[in-house]
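Q: Structure tokens for this one, please.
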Amino acid sequence: MKLSYLKKIRTVTSLLFFFSIAALFLDLSGVIPPSVFDGILFLQFIPSLLSFTNVIAAGATGFLIIIFLTLIFGRVYCSSVCPLGTLQDAVIYIGRKIRKKRRFKFAASLKIFRYSVLALVLVSLLFSSTLLINLLDPYSNFGRIFSDIIKPVVVFGNNILSGLLESFNIFLIYPNKVKGFNWITIIYPVLFVVILIIMSIRKERLFCNTICPVGAFLGLLSKFSFYKISINEDDCTSCGLCEWVCKSNCIDKKAKSVDFERCVSCYNCLSVCPKDGVIFSSSSKKEIKYSSSKRDFIRNTAVYFIGLTGIAAAQVKIIPTKESTVPVKSKYPASPPGGGSTEHFNSYCTACHLCISACPTGVLQPTFLEYGFLGMLQPRMDFIKGFCNYECRICLDVCPTEALIKKDLASKKLIQIGKVKFVKDNCIVETEKKDCGACAEHCPTKAVKMVPVAGANLFIPETEDEYCIGCGACEYACPTVPYKAIYVEASNIHGTAKKPKSEKIEEKIDLKEDFPF
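A: Here is the predicted structure, written as tokens:
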């Protein structure tokens, strides 16, 4: 799933905060009413925190909202709300335009330094000193930059334009004067902005992950965030694009890992990943441990429940309470339909995996030694991971070597790659006296049907293997674990199944009755 829209949302949000806060400092005419200020600055972390410690009121709880958002999504404050963060992004953007070939790589975390700064700030607060907060708070520094550096420049430009218009008797703009300008007090803002620009150009968001106490605190909280950016190892191609655009240098393409404490949620990585190698998902998913087969089972269940078939729905509804006990395993690996025989398929297949890639249900999987050493990596039908769609012949169409001979759909529907086998002692109807019928419900040829159990109000599967094509829908749908109650016994030489029986529905209609339908 592509999540590039998150970057667009982040960009729009950050610009709204940036320009609204900048307007507060650059309002030369005083047209912005004071009542608006509180609303615009409500989510600024340090001002809100200090205000709350002085006056516990709802209007000073913005920092609590930021903490909540961080615990859900990570450091969205750093990417979207903090105006100094947006200012750094602007410098980063210009720097990248100037140095087009500049690529950034994963950098070691300066964790000790970062948390030492945070500790010093907290200790100073305990001793009722706000000096370090004043010097390091991102919002405060942004305010100093705009009020001490940018505003005098804006006033100077305003006065030049005002004088120019006045010479033409146009009085739309009035001259202003800078109040309380002091060269001594401007030294720190100038030094700060110079250092910030150098850090942003060379290491991008380095300030946020080394000096900023708010960034350090929120980074600490982000370890427990519900949603996190991570690397999907199955889809990652190690192209390195995410690492090159990471503003925090926190993505390691070699280890395929993300240092989420340093991630500022810019979502650049999500927008550049050509595959689904970078994901933004619930961290709780990683805490649940499944066996490989169970994980694949759940994944496929979700996929097909959405719309491919109704098989997953049956699997979700029917949950066995006992484990099956009779081991089942096909004597031969099931080769794809169209191969004619395992020998023919092995002789022509080059293991290019084009059919595996094209298979919509994922039933085609590469082998290890199932075909023997010479057939290593050639595809086989894995009915635990999927099933052969009755209405599909894609693998036959894409095979470039005639290992799978092209046939029309009607002919493919009669290819018998194996026959269904029922193991009564594994079936939950027998072991738990519970209704099921998943296998019969999803058999496309009706080779499996449900018959009544003598002396019980239950129905149990019965098979007619002459109608079975070995598609594996019944095996895939069967909910019993670890062994299936029904499975496909594959054939080395493919056969031809009988055409499914057509059932006629007879309904007596009373012609005397109006609207008999």
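A few notes: DSSP finds 23 helices and ten strands in the chain. The chain has a mean pLDDT of 84.
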